[in-house]
Amino acid sequence: MQNSTTASSLWRPWTPISKQAAPLQIVEARGNRVRDVDGNWYLDGISGVLNASCGHAHPRLIEAATQQMSRLVHYDPMVSSHEPAETLTARLAELLPGELTATCLLNSGSEAMEAALRIALQHWRNIGEDRDRVITFEAGYHGSTYLAQQLSGLPFTVSEWARPFPVDHVAMPRPARDVRTEEACDELIAAFTAAFENGTPVAAVVVEPLLGLGGCVVLPPGFLTRLRKLCDRHGSLLILDEVFTGFGRTGRMFGFDHDGITPDVVTMSKGISSGYLPLAAVTVTSTIKDSFAREPIIQGLRYGHTTGGHAVAAAVANAVLDVMADEKLVENAAARGDELLAGLGLLRSNPLITDVRGLGLVVAVETVSPDAGETIAAAAARAGVMTRHERGIIRIAPPLTTTAADVAEIVQKISAATDQAHR
């Protein structure tokens, strides 16, 4: 498929300068498919920006945005509230377990993590304890704002500026393809235990239930349960980054639901509004929120943004929760995810493939090299399936509205692309 291209003044993030020119230009999206400027349609295997969980141009989401825009677009969240935000935060309190009842609404996953770190560190000051050390995965990714960048040990996200608090990074003890075992779980917990014991008291542990940019790593069953117990033993907060995994992506409403635990802080974005409008949330326990009555300056949270909790975005998020329930999208993600993993799992016999792994509607095909991955992803796109290739790993994360027929098409075209690359 050929694509019309012109020089552009748009500076695209996370893209080498040498590849800025002549990008694929998407002009329309409907359901689970997108169309480029030359009229070619593609199955959207990456959900827009990994966030279009309800598919594209869903009429109920468009209607929710249109109706709210005609009533109230937004108003200063420091001097007033509005019904969409009040309703959304109340519904999140019902969805989330335990005392996770206090939610601050923001615009992006990076902002949510920025807020989560500020809240966690300030909480310890509020209650008179000197804790500021954070433990996290070396291969984790939690955003591109200043504090969020401190958490990642990935080479393309490492901050060059002075670190405002100590961070200990835990490395994966094995390659991603070998980490889904009980033995690997033991090794991971041993590594986190050592990090706890070698330093000052830990303020918080921050992890993703499934590592995204760090290799699409599926963690071993029971890991989060044991990490929760480790945090409890040391009196530390557990912050779970559900920006990518939340709202059904893994076949459960939240990634931590697979282990049945309750974190102290949860960050959310992407699927919360299905990508229709920028929105994010950080939810904390009532105990953490109540400690801010003792914050020394305003006795509250000193963090926020002009458009945080935007009324139209919140209205769409409420509609997203309705659509997810009515169309049983969490259940669909689990069923279609099993089909996708089984179908693509047959690629393990191809010499170019070293692993196929996944959880719900996110599946990674790991190749022998970045060149092989790029070749396969490009061939799949020419065949009409969009994927996301990162350093030899091809990630497939279609909308939660994906059908069994869509899954069969994705499997057939990626398999053909892999065979073509091997010849």
Protein architecture, described:
With 423 residues, the chain is an alpha/beta fold. The chain has two domains: 17-54 and 328-422, Aspartate Aminotransferase, domain 1, CATH 3.90.1150; 62-326, Aspartate Aminotransferase, domain 2. 36% of the residues lie in helices and 17% in strands. It has helices at residues 47-50, 59-71, 83-95, 109-126, 146-149, 182-197, 223-234, 286-291, 311-326, 329-345, 370-383, 404-422, and strands spanning 26-30, 33-36, 41-44, 100-106, 133-137, 167-170, 202-207, 210-211, 217-218, 237-241, 265-268, 280-285, 353-358, 363-367, 385-386, 388-390, 393-396. It has a seven-stranded mixed β-sheet with strand order 4-12-11-10-7-5-6, with helices on both faces. A four-stranded mixed β-sheet has the order 1-2-3-15. The protein has a four-stranded antiparallel β-sheet with strand order 13-14-17-16, covered by helices on one side. Strand 2 and strand 3 (41-44) form a beta hairpin. Helix 6 (182-197) runs parallel beside helix 7 (223-234) and helix 11 (370-383) packs across helix 12 (404-422). It is globular and about 65 Å long.
